[in-house]
């Protein structure tokens, strides 16, 4: 386990100006954009997996050029970040090694952008996969087209959007909005005051919350770390839910990073975290994998996740 540093003394970063976030909305599959040019290309993974990912113009969608982040307006959802690919690799290894079963599992991908980790979970049999991004435009112009492209590929036949939606075995839904408000729209939220939440699985009823939360490159801004963490506490099923996080060790200019987020978790004490390993391949800042889970259930399945993620990292180190 890596040493964590305190959040104290990290407030020298200038806070971005307060801007009202966009309204939280559910974006329907049928709202996929037909006006923005969408080009698709394959992404091949070492495990024999191929996913399709789209490419759209930030200039065309947001009237922005060469911008990955405009606080309050655009949060980089149209760019494919390395952490998203790292997360797919880890999940693929988990499933292939029979360390992770998705049958009956509810999955939430936060800050989804292209949505490749969530798409992979959907293809592998999750019962529900919900995608969240700050911008509704990202969902309409990129995430939903990516879901469509990957399932059309799987069906080996062209399908209309309404036909495709009915042929996807999982419940697939899309939600946009700020992390401080979007939980009000999400269908599966942990309600600690609900007495059935902690033991409902023994009664044959599904637990509240999401079984798996996916986060790739979501911890980039120090100003939003606490909000993101509070959202995960509201959404993760307990005591058996797990968060998979892939991120850079540090994001220059915005102050966030994997160590900062895991320090936030540790300082709170309600949930537990482990930083599993790091990857330094020379192509970007050091990237890291971490897990977050219920603090009262740290001994249940953590060793399996640690071992399998370490195996995944060893396989993919240069």
UniProtKB/TrEMBL annotation:
This protein's record includes keyword Iron: no
Task: Give the principal location in a single coarse category.
Answer: cytoplasm
- GO molecular function ontology, one term from the record: protein-L-histidine N-tele-methyltransferase activity
GO BP terms: namely: methylation
Enzyme class of the recorded protein, top EC level? transferase
Q: Where in the cell is it found?
A: Cytoplasm; Nucleus
* Record-linked SUPFAM superfamilies: S-adenosyl-L-methionine-dependent methyltransferases
Q: Which GO terms describe its cellular component?
A: cytoplasm; nucleus
Its Enzyme Commission number(s) read 2.1.1.85
Q: Which UniProt keywords apply?
A: Cytoplasm, Methyltransferase, Nucleus, S-adenosyl-L-methionine, Transferase
* Lineage top rank: taxon: Eukaryota
Q: Which Gene3D superfamilies match?
A: Vaccinia Virus protein VP39 (3.40.50.150)
Assigned protein family? Belongs to the methyltransferase superfamily. METTL18 family.
Which PANTHER family does the UniProt record give?
HEPATOCELLULAR CARCINOMA-ASSOCIATED ANTIGEN, HISTIDINE PROTEIN METHYLTRANSFERASE 1 HOMOLOG
Report the protein name in the record.
protein-histidine N-methyltransferase
Q: Which organism is it from?
A: Aquilegia coerulea (Rocky mountain columbine)
Lineage summary = Eukaryota, Viridiplantae, Streptophyta, Embryophyta, Tracheophyta
């Amino acid at each position: 386990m890596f040493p964590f540093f305190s959040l104290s003394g990290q407030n020298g970063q200038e806070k971005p100006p307060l801007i009202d976030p966009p309204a939280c909305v559910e974006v329907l599959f049928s709202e996929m954009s037909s006006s923005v040019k969408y080009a698709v290309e394959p992404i091949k993974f070492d495990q024999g997996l191929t996913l399709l990912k789209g490419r759209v113009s930030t200039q065309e969608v947001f009237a922005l050029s060469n911008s990955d982040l405009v606080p309050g307006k655009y949060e980089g959802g149209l760019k494919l970040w390395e952490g998203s690919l790292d997360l797919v690799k880890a999940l693929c290894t988990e499933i292939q090694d029979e360390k992770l079963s998705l049958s009956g599992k509810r999955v939430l991908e936060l800050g989804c952008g292209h949505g490749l980790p969530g798409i992979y979970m959907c293809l592998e049999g999750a019962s529900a996969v919900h995608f969240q991004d700050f911008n509704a435009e990202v969902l309409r112009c990129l995430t939903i087209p990516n879901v469509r492209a990957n399932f059309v590929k799987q069906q080996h036949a062209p399908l209309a959007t309404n036909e495709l939606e009915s042929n996807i075995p999982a419940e697939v839904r899309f939600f946009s909005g700020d992390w401080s408000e979007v939980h009000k729209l999400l269908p599966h939220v942990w309600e600690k005051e609900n007495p059935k939440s902690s033991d409902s699985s023994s009664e044959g009823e599904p637990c509240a919350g999401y079984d798996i939360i996916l986060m790739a490159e979501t911890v980039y801004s120090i100003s939003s770390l606490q909000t993101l963490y509070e959202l995960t506490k509201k959404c993760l099923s307990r005591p058996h839910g797990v968060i998979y996080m892939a991120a850079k060790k540090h994001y220059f200019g915005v102050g966030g990073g994997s160590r900062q987020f895991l320090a936030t978790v540790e300082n709170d004490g309600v949930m537990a975290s482990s930083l599993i390993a790091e990857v330094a391949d020379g192509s970007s800042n050091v990237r890291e994998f971490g897990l977050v889970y219920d603090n009262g259930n740290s001994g249940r399945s953590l060793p399996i996740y640690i071992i399998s993620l370490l195996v995944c990292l060893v396989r993919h180190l240069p």
